[in-house]
Amino acid sequence: MLSLGCDVGTMFTKTVVMDNGNVIAHDITRNNGTLKELVEASIHSAVSRAGLSLDDIKVRGGTGMGDKYIRIEHANQGIIKSLARGSFWALAGARTVVDLGGLSTTIISLNGAGKVIEYRTSDKCASGSGFFLELAAQALELTVEEMGETVVPPEECAHMSTQCAVFCESEIVSHINDGIEVKSIVGGINYSLGSGIATMINRLGAIPAILITGGVAKSRGVVCALEKHLGVEVVKSVPADHQLIAAVGAALCARDVQQS
Amino acid sequence: MAEYSDRKDRTVTTWWQITADLAKYILSQDINHLDDWGGKEVVRDILPEVFQKNFDMIQTDLINCILEEKNKETAQNFVNNIGSYVDEMHKGLDAGNKVCYHYFIHSIEPMLALDIVPICFEVLSGLTAALYTDGCEEGIDAIEGEGYPDHLCSSNKGAAGFLLKGYLPKPDMFLKGANPCDASNRIYEWAAHKCKVPLLTTETPYYFNERAHRFMIGETRRLVANLEKIAGKKIDEGRLREYVEYGNEAVDYIVKIQELKKMVPCPDTGWHRPADTIFMCQIGTPHGAKYFRDLYGIVKKRADKGEGVVPEGKKERRLAWGYTWECFDLPFFNWLENEHGAIYTEDTLSYFPADVGKVDTTNMETMIEGLAWRSMQMPMARQTMSFSDVWINDFVHICKAFKVDALILGGHMACKHYWALNKLMSDKVKEKAGIPTLRFEFDMMDKRFTSPAELKRIMNDFFATF
Fold first, then answer.
1. Which helix (H) or strand (E) holds A108?
2. Is the overall model pTM greater than 0.95, yes or no?
3. CB B438 to CB A118 under 8 A?
4. Which of A257, B270, B321, B407 lies at 20 to 30 Å from B389 by C-alpha?
5. Does the model's ipTM exceed the 0.90 cut?
6. A1-90+243-260 classified as CATH 3.30.420.40
7. Which residue in the set B426, B436, B439 is minimally distant from A116, CB to CB?
């Protein structure tokens, strides 16, 4: 059965086309411009990459903060449900899902059957999010990818006293003026982010297997720092791009409804 | 049409009095929604002039909520007894009786027997927040202007601010038990200091053993002696018995209603749960007894027919609220029923353990002993006495006994004692009852902290995971 999932996040729109539970095409588009048009373009891009037309796909699920901008007929699935479903698809043994998104972090506890037991979202603060990393990268004149590839041992990390997206820029500037190496500053930022995310995870309980999703999951630096703080390894390899998991979940939830 | 006081020091209670009469008037019409009467603007012009200003203040969604067929009887019960509550209070004030502003966990029978007018501080904030679009925010802002921060409890601050603005009768005393928190103790201390009147206090024991009970009896005796001193007379045993019997009746019905709420489908609507707490603060009064007696009748009638309160075709989802309701948006609980089929079983502020029992009215001594025992078991007093186990065990029990599908741990942001145990409770309930939990923050009485729209978003996300 063909299905489509679209996750309209705060920084990116992600679309997947699935056939019998496998991703056959996807699109990731940055949200620069009019959201309604971007979403439409993302959907059409994924569908055409799959060699299909929209009419071929009757089962469609939408999710994310911008779900209302999905103008094609679809069923809204809710972000927590989509993340849970997508994560269970990615890793059947997942018990803790850590979604590191554009403007928020979400932690979800699953039982052995993939049912949500509890979740927490940092929806009032951009700390630890993709947006935070972009601000830091700009201040350091690096790309987010360059920051992500920087893994520094804790003892070599510059001390970051804030996880606040607003105040971190001035702290970075202070460190640069003090002559601290950029690598150490990056390490300090990643280490500080890892600490904040680990605290959130521990609030629910860091039950393995811990699966990381969302755009920030691509930052090796943040993920390594997170593992150091948690004292356990997280699952880094999944059958689709980490950023697509919620879109996959939306597609699967829509399919589940269709099949039930 | 009733005559309403224009005294500034009865501003808040007169708002309630007019609202109660206005609600009775609207409920007497054959409508299920304001739109059936032409919409809000049209209705305003139809209303008698005396109601129009008050009508502008009331939350429109609340009016539409109580006009829903399933809510009408409970709404009538609520407004009738609010009217009686204010009438009684005003009569006492007109007679020149002493006024005691007290914390909500106290038994008020000794005050009633001494002709003291008991006014619950937290009810002042809560009821005003529940009824009006601007809630008790004017009071909160006034007290914050005195230097109190936004993270202290709005249930104290709203009333304290109204007092500061002169909207409430002058107190002759304040009464505050030691639990649940030091911050609320300090606000009462401030209010007593500001009003230059005594602050009466009672200490709190640990647990529910014999030693604790003996301690509480001593505290109750000490309190009665202090009340007698201020009232300038000795308590009359016969009058105390009269009020204690009203209290026994109310508690009896509270426990019976709880039993009915264990049924599937649940026969009780959720919108009035904060109102239940308000009337728990009236245990010992005739209208307190009447509220729960009539509520029992409404719930029993539905239970006997095997009827629930969620729309036909919707699956009933049974919620317990591990701490508290919010009261700035009562229709929210009605929305939960209608939108998600989510019924409201119990919460900390309305749960009465079934073994509280009646107060023995044999003589003065037995009544003091019984009131001491009951005041230890009052909602929130019981859970905040000492360690976390009472609170947590209560909710493990509630989740099982009421066949709860999910525990909602919506927490009042000011309650540090709650936030210090919320994870313990969540973990234990997940482990023992095997149900999901949801934790989030709001301010019980101030919608500016977590808005009604945000609450709905949180719940929509949560129910999407079912």
1. strand A105-110
2. no
3. yes
4. B270
5. no
6. yes
7. B436
